[in-house]
Amino acid sequence: MATSITSVELNYLVFRYLQESGFTHSAFALGYEAGINKSPIDGNLVPPGALITFVQKGLQFLEMEANLSNVSMTSSFLCSYLCLYTYRCVCVLV
Q1: What is the CATH number of the domain that holds 23?
Q2: Which helix H or strand E contains 19, and what residues bound it?
Q3: Distance CA 59, CA 7 (A)
Q4: Assigned domain for 81 exists
Q5: Considering the entire predicted model, what is its pTM?
Q6: Where, if anywhere, are coiled coils annotated (predicted)?
Q7: How far is the C-alpha of 12 from the C-alpha of 32, rounded, in Å?
């Protein structure tokens, strides 16, 4: 399991997001500038909405990390950023 993402992968995810959202001109410009057509990524293996899913999972991970470590800076950042959403984290320690 990869723990990081390359700039090529991120560019492809943003490109796909722009296409899926109907921003065709922006997708074309990014695709041209980033050389998406030369990318080794097989687009058929990338599910629709992959960028949104990736970002949502990252935010969930940050929240879980903040709930487990009680780091005030991270918690206050998440609280101010995620105040629009309601999340409930239930942790069972064994």
Answers
A1: 1.20.960.30
A2: helix 7-20
A3: 19
A4: no
A5: 0.69
A6: none
A7: 11
